[in-house]
Every structure is written in structure tokens, then in C-alpha cells.
Design brief:
CATH architecture of the largest domain: 4-Layer Sandwich
Organism: Streptomyces griseofuscus
Protein name: Guanylate cyclase
Radius of gyration: 38 Å
Pfam family, one: GAF_2
Oligomer: single chain
CATH class of the largest domain: Alpha Beta
GO molecular function: phosphatase activity
Keywords: Hydrolase
């Protein structure tokens, strides 16, 4: 498809001075990529136009002013655009067009374009219409992208429902020919199994004699565009067939088929093997634009997907025709794969691999893994415990290609090894009655990180069918192990980072009990945005906080650390909670953009044991959920302490609130992940249920009992649906003075 080059901002082209209003429009559009033209009189004489306008209508050949628009762009008349101009000039009412299709140029040079445009009447001081202003933005690329996306989606749906390959390729070829208005002709050739010849796949617009002539051409250097592209495994662009040496043997065919240019892209499988070629022919010599090459890449990949799916289906059907027992193989692989992926512990996955292999693939199995340059036996499987113990007692040698050991050789080469004899090197082969072995590598991007060894006994042998099954199973096992490793590493990293952002344990507090709860959303693979903290101050009081950072992951962790460490650093130096929160707000506003720009909600305060018993608390609420006061009678009171979000404005709105907790009374801080927890009907837990759950206690609750009551109520409400947002809670409970019950 032809792409209109991006226009550099340039001054408008002006044949002569116009009314004062036109000067304004020149200022607006003279340096714009939007197309603008000012037309005068009933003939719609072009007075002013910017370069974007001339580029859109045909480029340098049409850069003229002082001529009627119908003369400059004669093809507009038959498309009705001149009539619309007449209407605007006659009625004085503007006209707005959206996604209007315009054919610009004539004959082979014509191109399809789409525009959003406005025709506005020009009037003199007396209100008389003197001309029309044309303002437009070309939407061709957007339109083509929409059509491309729609066609691509249809093809993917065909592939997903396993439509015949010929139907998919034929539909793809026709879709591209429709998308490219320059008369492109599409051909798809399919590679033989050996990759040495190309066969006809689809070419709905090429003549039959041409398709028949190139059916079966060899792949090789200089064999037309397609044969060369298949040989090189990269695109080959021939912009003029009549002079290109690649076409010496096919020039007569191209001339007979009226073909002048051919751009061929190889269709490659995921492993890099050749699947075929995707070619775009043109009737005239032509050099591709970047959009043409991008289109070829997209549909070559789509063709690869369709061909690989087709080949997989063909292989399956062939296997079913040749050997009904293949159904058992598929069931075996399915059951084994299910077992391999049933957990995310790599050791358990490897043990399941060994267990899955016996007795279907071999009587004995062992799995070895390379760790820090040494080979370790991780799993074994055998019919009896005695045989399994013997197999487990064997320690493979160091991973060295020169070692006299099958496992070492396979780990070094990354290739399977099979033999109808006992393995070389020391081992309990005689005691186990081993008569042959198959060793298959576990690969990570081509590098072996382990090996599966299958051992034959008695009359058992390894045929090609068993080897193929073992290699397929090992490939799936390697994928499952790598997934388990990645999950374990990421989960451990997340736990370590999260642990660094939370208290390792609740400290002993003077005159108070504390309990906390934290549960990240999902499977624990992202660092949560909720946090809490408790720490002592120099004057004997204690600071407490609970907050919620906007977002999750590393950025949230950075903000959480900034809030906690800033508060800990400044709290001993500032007079009270409000000053501390303002310092935190300042630190948030000064953080680099790479560390996040999200807001924070927070409850921060100080508490001191009261001389008469209980706790005296001073706190600030910055846009967070309302703290709850649980009194001695079991009643729950929201603590309305006004305050706005921090991290968004220099002038944070904050107020200081005071609260006295009598002995056994508690203050509960929680994040919105608790009240916004949902059940299977998508209903939220809400503040009312929270209050009810805490207010039903028959006697005052300890801090931990309050947490247990809260979490129990939430879990009972949500059921087994998981946590969709981080949840955190912190409870402070006043304890009786020493010596009092």
C-alpha cells in the first residue's frame, strides 16, 4: 500500500493576498500537517493552500494556485465533491465530511484515500459568500489500519477454528489485494518437507499458466524472488523484473503474466525452518514503502501460524491413519503434561517427569540437573523400591563432553543419545539388568540444564516412536520446570522485597497490644501497594502508620519505601504527626518521575500510655479510609478526621485529631482492599459489614482477635474467589496498667 509521506511544516503557498480572515487561517495551517486551501468565487479558484494540501492531492505535479479546483483535481467532479462545494457556496452553510473516500489521480496512478474534512463559506463584511475554505486531515492510514486489523482478525479466527489451509491462504491473499489499491497480486508458495522445493499454495489473481509453471520450483540463489528468498531466509525485493538477474529464467513467464515487480518474504516456523514464501506482485516496476514491508511481515507471520497449524493437524491425522496406538500416545502426553503443570515446584515437577515415564516409555527412569557446574540426580522411578534406591545411588560425572558418560555428553551437546547397550562409565547397570538407554536433554533456549535418562531391561528397546514421545515429553517438562523456576524466583524476590517494606514482627508496646494483617492481591508475584509500620520515638511515644500507594509492583515499592523511611527519619525531629505527614508529602512531590507519580493515602499518628490508663493518640488522616474506634461496650465508631490525599499538591489538606483509648478499647486502621473485597455476585464487603462484624463481639477483643474477626468475616463473604486487591490492617488495643486486671 502507498503511504503518504509525512509532511514537514512549511509556509503556505499564496498566489496573492486575501482577506484578513485568510491570514489567520494561514497562520493556523501554513505550518500544519493538516491540509488547507482557500477557494474563491463560484469556480472555486485556488487562492491559498499549504504543502500538506498539495501533497495529499498528488504532490509536485499539482502545486498550482490561481486555477479552479475542478481543473486542478478533475477527478473530484465525478465523485461529487465539486457539487458539495457548489452547495456550500450557494447556501452559505458549512459541510463536514467524515472518513470520506476519495480517489486521487487517474488511471494506474490513482490512489484511494480517506479524509475528515470541512467546507466552510468565506464571507465579506456584508455577509456575502465570496468563496469556500477547505480544511482536511487524511485518515487513510487509520482507515487502512482498521481494515487490516479486521481482516487479520478474521484470518486468526479461521486459524483458530481450524479452517482448511487453502481457505485461509486464499482469504489472506484476497484480503491483501483488497487492502492494497495499487493492483497488488498475492502469491503463497508452500515448502516441501525437505525445504528444497516450493509448491502452489494460493494465488487467486495470478493466471493459471503462471501458477502451474512455478509450482515445484527449487529454492536457491537466483531462482526468481521466491526461490531466492526461501534460500536466503530473508526478504528479496525485485522492483523491476525486466532487468533483475534473479528473473533470467522466468522473465518470459512474467512478461506473459504482465508482472513487473515482485517482493518475496520467506515464511518461517518458530524454529526458523522454511514453511514457504509470501510474494506481492505489481503490474508496474515499484519499490516498496515501509508500510508495504510491514504488511508483508504481518501476513507472512499469519501464514506461518496457519501453515504450522495445518502441518500439526496433518501430522496428527497421519499418525491416526498409520497407527491407532497414537491415541494412547496423545493421552499419555496429555496426562503427563497435566501432571507436570499441576504445581510450581521444580523438584516435584522433575519427580513427576520420572514417574510419568514408567512403564510407558521405559522400565527405569532418572532425571539429572546441572547446578553450579555439577550434575545432581534429582529424581528416579522404577518398579521396585530396591531398583529405585540403586538408581538413586548412582552419581553422574561432571558435565563434560569428553567424559565417558552419556549424561555428560548429552548435557554438553544438547542432543539426545540412544544405544542398545549399557551406558558407558560406572553405574549399577548389571544389578539393574540394563540393556539399553535413551538420554534426552532438558533445554532452555538451546542450552541443556538437565537430562532425562530412560533405561531398558530384558527385551525392551527404544524405537523411533518411543524416542519421539520421550523428546516431546521432555520438551514439555523443560517448559514446566522453567516456568516453575521463574515463578519461584519471582515469588521469592517479591517476598523479599515485600518483607523489606513491612515490619518483620510486631514489637512489644508500652500500654498497648498491636496486631497486623497483610495479604497481597493475586498470586504474590507483584509487590503490593499497602503498608504499615510501628516504631518508637525518642520521647517515649510510638509512631504508627498504615497507608496505600497508588499502583503495584516496583514503582509502588519505591513509593512505599520513601514514605516509611521519610516518616522514620523526620518523626524524631518534628513536633507532631501533621508535620511528619507534610514532610512525607514534600518527599513524594520531589521524587523522580521514574520512581512514580501516584498519590498516597495514609493514616499516621503517635500514641503514649496515659497516666490514668489507656492510650492517648494524636493522628492525621490523609485521604485514607476512616479509622474505627472499638469502645469497651463493643460499639464501633468511625473516627472522622478530615484530610486529603498526599503526593499531588504542595498544600496538602490535613487536620490533627485526638483520641483516648480506655483499656481494652481499640483503634483499627485498614485499607480499601478489605471493604472493596467482592463475592461471586461482584458485591462489595463494604463498611457496613465491617462494622457489623466487629460490633457483634460479646466482650472486648484483643488486637489479634480483632484481626481474626475482621479477616474471618471478609473470607466468609468472598469465598474461594481470591484476593483482587491488596489488603492490610493494623490494630492498636489499650491494655490495663500494670497491676490492674
Amino acid at each position: 500500500m502507498t503511504r503518504v509521506p509525512q509532511q514537514q511544516p512549511v509556509e503556505a503557498v499564496n498566489r496573492r493576498g486575501g482577506p484578513e480572515g485568510d491570514e489567520d487561517f494561514r497562520a493556523l495551517f501554513g505550518r500544519s500537517t493538516a491540509a488547507f486551501a482557500s477557494l474563491a468565487g463560484p469556480a472555486h479558484m485556488v487562492e491559498v493552500a499549504n504543502e500538506a494540501f498539495f501533497a495529499a492531492i498528488g504532490g509536485e505535479e499539482r502545486i498550482r494556485v490561481g486555477v479552479p479546483l475542478g481543473q486542478l483535481i478533475p477527478e473530484l467532479a465525478e465523485q461529487g465533491f465539486i457539487t458539495l462545494l457548489d452547495q456550500v457556496y450557494r447556501t452559505g452553510e458549512r459541510y463536514v465530511g467524515r472518513d470520506a473516500r476519495v480517489m486521487i489521480g487517474t488511471g494506474s496512478a490513482a490512489r484511494e484515500a480517506f479524509f475528515d474534512f470541512t467546507y466552510e463559506p468565506r464571507t465579506d463584511r456584508g455577509g456575502n459568500v465570496t468563496g469556500v475554505r477547505v480544511i482536511g486531515v487524511e485518515t487513510t492510514q487509520v482507515k487502512h489500519a482498521q481494515r487490516l486489523t479486521a481482516e487479520h482478525r478474521v484470518l486468526l479466527e479461521q486459524i483458530a477454528r481450524q479452517a482448511p489451509l487453502s481457505e485461509v491462504l486464499e482469504g489472506m491473499a484476497r484480503a491483501i489485494e483488497d487492502l492494497a489499491p495499487e493492483g497488488v497480486l498475492v502469491s503463497v508458495l508452500l515448502a516441501d518437507a525437505d525445504g528444497k522445493h516450493l509448491r502452489h499454495g494460493a494465488a487467486p489473481s495470478l493466471p493459471d499458466f503462471y501458477n502451474q509453471a512455478i509450482d515445484g520450483i527449487a529454492t536457491g540463489e537466483g531462482v526468481g524472488s521466491c526461490g531466492t528468498a526461501a534460500h536466503r531466509r530473508r526478504p528479496v525485493i525485485v522492483s523491476d523484473i525486466s532487468t533483475d538477474p534473479f528473473w533470467d529464467d522466468f522473465r518470459h513467464l512474467a512478461r506473459a503474466a504482465r508482472l513487473a515487480a515482485c517482493w518475496s518474504t520467506p515464511i518461517l516456523a518458530r524454529d526458523g525452518s522454511l514453511l514457504g514464501t509470501f510474494a506481492m506482485y505489481h503490474r508496474t516496476p515499484r519499490i516498496p514503502q515501509e508500510s508495504d514491508l510491514a504488511l508483508a511481515r504481518v501476513f507472512a507471520d499469519t501464514a506461518a501460524l496457519a501453515i504450522e497449524r495445518h502441518q500439526a493437524d496433518e501430522a496428527r491425522r497421519a499418525a491416526e491413519r498409520k497407527e491407532r496406538a497414537a491415541r494412547a500416545d496423545l493421552a499419555f502426553l496429555l496426562n503427563a503434561s497435566t501432571a507436570l503443570t499441576s504445581g510450581l515446584d521444580q523438584v516435584q515437577t522433575l519427580r513427576r517427569l520420572a514417574t510419568s515415564c514408567i512403564p510407558v516409555l521405559a522400565p527405569l527412569a532418572a532425571v539429572d540437573i546441572v547446578d553450579r557446574g555439577r550434575v545432581h540426580r534429582i529424581a528416579t522411578a522404577a518398579p521396585t523400591q530396591a531398583q529405585q534406591d540403586l538408581l538413586a545411588s548412582h552419581t553422574p560425572v561432571h558435565a563434560d563432553a569428553d567424559a565417558d558418560d552419556a549424561v555428560a555428553r548429552v548435557l554438553a551437546s544438547g542432543l539426545s543419545e540412544v544405544a542398545r547397550r549399557t551406558p558407558t562409565g560406572p553405574g549399577p547397570w548389571q544389578d539393574l539388568g540394563v540393556t539399553g538407554y535413551l538420554c534426552v536433554p532438558l533445554l532452555d533456549r538451546g542450552h541443556a540444564f538437565g537430562a532425562l535418562t530412560l533405561l531398558s531391561t530384558a527385551e525392551h528397546t527404544f524405537d523411533g516412536h518411543t524416542i519421539a514421545l520421550a523428546e516431546e515429553l521432555t520438551q514439555r517438562a523443560a517448559s514446566a520446570v522453567l516456568n516453575a523456576r521463574q515463578y519461584t524466583q519471582r515469588a521469592a524476590l517479591t517476598r523479599d522485597l515485600q518483607a523489606g517494606l513491612l515490619l518483620p514482627e510486631i514489637p512489644a508496646l508500652p500500654g498497648a497490644q498491636a496486631a497486623a494483617y497483610y495479604h497481597p492481591a493475586g498470586e504474590g508475584l507483584d509487590i503490593g501497594g499497602d503498608f504499615y509500620d510501628l516504631f518508637p520515638l525518642d520521647d517515649g511515644s510510638w509512631a504508627f502508620m498504615l497507608g496505600d500507594v497508588c499502583g503495584r509492583g516496583a514503582t509502588a515499592a519505591t513509593t512505599t519505601a520513601l514514605v516509611r523511611h521519610t516518616a522514620r527519619a523526620v518523626a524524631p525531629l518534628l513536633p507532631g504527626p501533621e508535620a511528619v505527614v507534610r514532610a512525607v508529602n514534600k518527599a513524594l512531590l520531589q521524587r523522580p518521575h521514574s520512581h512514580g507519580t501516584g498519590f498516597v493515602t495514609l493514616v499516621y499518628g503517635h500514641f503514649t500510655p496515659a497516666s490514668t490508663g489507656g492510650l492517648d493518640l494524636t493522628l492525621v488522616r490523609a485521604g485514607h479510609t476512616l479509622p474505627l474506634h472499638l469502645d469497651q461496650r463493643g460499639a464501633v465508631h468511625p473516627l472522622d478526621c478530615p484530610g486529603g490525599l498526599i503526593g499531588i499538591s504542595d498544600e496538602a489538606y490535613l487536620t490533627t485529631c485526638h483520641l483516648h483509648l480506655e483499656p481494652t478499647e481499640s483503634l483499627l486502621l485498614y485499607t480499601d482492599g478489605i471493604t472493596e473485597a467482592r463475592n461471586h455476585d461482584r458485591e462489595q464487603f463494604g463498611e457496613e459489614r465491617l462494622t457489623q462484624a466487629l460490633g457483634h463481639a460479646s466482650s472486648p477483643l484483643t488486637a489479634q482477635q480483632t484481626i481474626d474477626t475482621l479477616t474471618g468475616a471478609v473470607h466468609a463473604f468472598t469465598g474461594p474467589h481470591g484476593v483482587h486487591d491488596d489488603q492490610a490492617a493494623l490494630v492498636l488495643t489499650a491494655t490495663p496498667p500494670a497491676g490492674r486486671p
